[in-house]
## 1
Amino acid sequence: MIKDLIIKEKVIRQELMLLGVLFVFSNLTNVYAILVHQGSWSELISQFHVVGLLTLFLYAVSLLLRGLFYSGRAVWRLTTKGTQS
Amino acid sequence: MNRRAFIEMISGLAGTTFLAAQMPWFTVFTNPSGAGMSASDRVRVGFIGVGSRGQTLMLNVQEFQARMNIDIVAVCDTWPEHKERAVAMINGQAEGFLDYREMLDKVQMDAVIIATPLHEHAQMTIDAMQMGIHVFVEKAMARTLDDTKAMYDAHIDSGKIMLVGHQRLFSPVYIKALEMINNGELGKITKLRGWWTRNTPWIFYDVPGGRGSALDRQRNWRLYWDYSAGQITELGSHHFQLANWVLDSEPLSVMGSGSLNYHTDGREVYDNYSLVFTYPNGVHFTYDLLDSNRHNGVGFQVLGNEGTMQLEANRHFAETPPRPPAIRTLIHNIEKSIFETIPIGGATWIPAEAVKYGGNYISPDYQLNETLLFLEGFIEFVRKGEAPPKLTEEGYNASTWSLLADEASREGTILTLPEKYKIKPCQA
């Protein structure tokens, strides 16, 4: 039997917050790049798609890192539980 | 580019010395004859030679036949199947002939479109113009320099229009390209490069008797010296015209070499050539033709110190590519610092690398058919009774230099155009 997947409001808020932070970070990266590489300020608009892709890429990286962290922690807990019993 | 954008572009250039000097014929689209749809305004057109190319030209004329009030009044081909096919294409509404002289004698017409084997062009064109008929003849003009000059002289003496089918003269891409070159966007033009490479035996018809038989010489005429200079007159001629047009000059000389190194089946005409045309100011145009490898396809490049144009591909490349957006440079630099390997040994000499840059379109969204535009222009000129002299001169010059290139390749010498074949440069 398939169970409903429940995502708590708190988790949704946290993920949206993270996405927002990454979006701001990507825009700041664009500003930094424009300053360092003497780009045009119009690139803040014209390169919006690159900023969007960068945001999604960083979010995917964060998912991967968190996945690795939680899986590692679960494995470690299982291992230590086995040794204690 | 659609038709409206094309007309707008021509209108925008109207009155400029550039258009008047280098391509005056385009004004025919913004300043048409104004003829109506009555029977007296109708242009009567005949076709001589309705094989592969002739059929294409006929289909193009049929595209605008009703809109431009044209009557196809007669068709002629020595090959009965072609003649019958052409008559069927116009639903039997024109008479078919096997002999062009009979056609010209019997049928009243204003213009004739000739697409027969090269060696037949001269007599047909001269006969038609002497009978008061305007002529559109496929390129190149003729098989010999004497015939080519005789055609030009007949055009001058008769006062009849004679246009040669180098359709790139009517390509919107080239208008834009020449305008950009004229504006100095390539800097100083230092070299032209061209090539036409295919992997084909170039046999149009399989005939009993095989290569070298009388029938093969008649049907696959492009393979025999008596009738054609092969790739040079049938293909390269287009690019020789382009080179003259871009540089606004004729070559000073041509040298070349050629051989039969693959299609050794009994044909005579070479299957590969390498040519070098020398123009004023030390500019050279190098040109390759090959029938045994199609890797490079067809290309024509104009190279200057500030950019390159690849005209057949409708592309323009600035010598210094535009800087990519800053964020992409940043990402690229990060990627490079992470993934680039550091060599511990390697070549001590780094070759000059080609610029990796996709370039820009010369004429974006190009949709027009230049053969159709050329034929439309021809009909308009027939209505007006005259065409800009430069248009005929472009055809003449490309044809004479095609024949010289053929001769230079066969003799292995450097050739210039003999004085007797030079035509007086005309003001358009």
## 2
Amino acid sequence: MIGHPQGARSSLKKGFGIALRSRLILAVVLLPVLSLAMASAQESQEAAKGLLGDESDGSRAHPTHLIPLFAEDEDGDKGAQVTPDADPLLPFSTKYTCGECHSYDVIRRGWHFNAMDETVPPGRPGEPWIYVDPKLGIQVPLSYRSWAGTIQPREFGLSEFAFTRLFGRHMPGGGPGEVKATDDADVGRQYISGKLEINCLACHNGHYGQDMGGVSGWAVQIAVRQNNRWAAAASCEFASVKGSAADMGVAYDPFMPEGGDKEPRVEYRDGAFDSDHQVLFDIVREVPNARCYYCHSDVYFSGTDEKTEKWSSEEDVHLKAGLTCVDCHRNDIHHEIIRGYPGEEEISDSRLAATTTCQGCHLPAGPNVPDAGRLGAPVPQHVGLPPVHFERLSCTACHSGPWPGEQAVFTKTSRAHRLGTPNVNKSEEMVPHILSPVFAHDGDKISPHKVIWPAYWGTRADDKVTPIALDVVERAIKAQFDKLEIPSSGTWPGISTEQIAAALKSLSQAADANAVYVAGGALYSLNEAGEVEEEADHPVAKPYMWPLAHTVRPAAQSLGIRYCTDCHATDSPFFFGKVAVDSPIASDVPATRQMVGFQDISPFYAWAFSASFVFRPWFKVIALGASAVLGIVLLLYGLKALGAVARVLAEDE
Amino acid sequence: MFQTISIFIVLATFIGVVIHWFAFPAGPECRGGSGFVRGLVHAFSLLLIEQRNSLLGALKKLCYLLAVVCFLVLAFTGFWPLLVRGDEHISGYLMMVHATFAPIFAFCLAVLAITWASRYRFVVGDCPCVQRLLRRVTRLHVPAPEEACRCASTAQKAAFWAIVVLALPLILSIVLSMFPLFGTYYQELALAIHRWTSIAFFVAVIVHTYLAVRVRFAQ
């Protein structure tokens, strides 16, 4: 028998034991790591694959949305399914209801929700959120996007929670509405109000009962009642919300209601749930125009016309041709809505960004496939229009917005004037004062713009002007301005120079800095004698402008359709139309500027060039006459030459 | 491309003229540097109104003077931004000046065409060598006098008719584009025709002027 010696056997046993132990330890350590890795890989695979509703299978039919509702729990996570007999009965959460099949985290990075994401390029300047307080002489364009000329809400002293309360009425939720409050004053309120989730129904609800601006709809729930958590449910057709989070004390817990009348609560209509506790939504992929219009309506006042009335205003030619907003402003699950301006493709990930512009549909392009005429777009002829116009002007310059008059007109927008919500002042002079169309050079071409002259209180240090936080301004000067009476039209009450001087003194003390007032294109400050000094045309006071693209007018109503003098005349609105320099400061003579001042063109040159069109018909007559004479001379001597040749040929016979 | 080709053509024209002046002097007094200066003086003298001129002759000369001024202005305002600055279009004040002088130039050109057409018509004795060649090749009774060729005079005539022929597309391409006739494609085509014709026209005018100086020397 061959065997191991006892010592060797013992050491072998010991070694085997150590190896086994090491393997066991290794297994214990590796198992969770491997499981985690596998789970993570599975998750990333799923994430890459997306959820059920992230990608269409190609069917053009509307998918039926008979689905269960889910609420958010007190930790902000997915709560229990909402059933009619649940206690407490919570509002459904779009994040967890729609998010069952559509990747909410992908959608929230879309254009309507990503303003706070610093990694998203701001793109062409767009409409800002405008905070306005006529008594304090404030009219300030705010934006989380870094559009030059706008002010960051935080810089203006508005927390995300406060911003949402002010402007959530015309936001589709998400963005600042979902930011966790950090300010002491906001933390408790946000727990009661809830976050303002993306309201998918704001756009995708095809039901006529979707209530965005009604007396108990989306806007009121946010702006008045602070019912952020309930707002989406309040807006839909099968639920109604009573009570107000704004009326609740800081100790109130919405997840443990006490049954008071003022408590925010949701009621689902009878029959909303089926026997499986599912609810039928009327969800549409193609967002109806009216949904867009809630936030994107414009009203142009041109004097005496009743332009607020729909029957007296014109409609965009594309809509009249049968298109919808989303035929051009498209998106996929990423919700990176195509804004539709030239150059967007440089910053957009949307593969259709380059072709979903005016040129994309109306002009021939593409080396392989003819793009022109998509969606029935007529290919423009632009007969008689020198091509240089296409280099200097955007398509919208001639085709968009109201026909320009002697002066840029007051313009109201949904978001600036909270159109479509209860108790809107319908006066055309209601602040904020937006003026349009202003034909301005945007760095590339001349386009029609909407313009707002900023007015706000700030501090100056080293020529840098910083806005003073709103609450500081209110504390410092509200009492001084309380006596001002706001006219029924809602326009500026007219601040006097003395009031500005007093306010600047108060603000300098409150902010412990050199206070200034920005208004009407100028910067006002106190000199050493304590008098108000005006610095006209100050860079920080220049107007914020953003291009307007709608309402698109047809070719027959485009600028230049009658003659070149639609623009090239010494009194044409395009160059010489007036733009009011809007200011809260009382003035006997309203200041104006000419459009040409916004176009990087010398006013004299514009005038001289326009004046030359007076003589242009004569130039044409002379040139055509000269051509005729030259032609006749050529013909005459050509015939003579032909005669000579003929003679030579005849002689040969 | 237009910029490169045009610069080449303009330079080639001027260099060609200078080389031709020295390689084939118009007369013994034209040789050397002093001859070149004399040539420039002659070119300048083309602009002067001679005392022997009749009223009509003086008017023609004035018309010619005006045409020369307009030509210089048009050439500068037209070519400077495109060839020197590399702009895509002429614009601004240069454009306005260009558009102002253009109809005056067209008018002068029409007057000169009427008044000079007869003088510049081709006649039997213009180029006997070509006529002899024609007669030999075609065996037709082409009149061919046994004289020496007056090439400068003949080329000057050809340059004149080239100017008249080129003036038509040059003027019409831009004037017709001001009427609501052409769409964008044809507008761009008209502009291209105007540009390329203007280069050819420029060369024709330079050659015509140069040959006028040579012919004057020969006389």
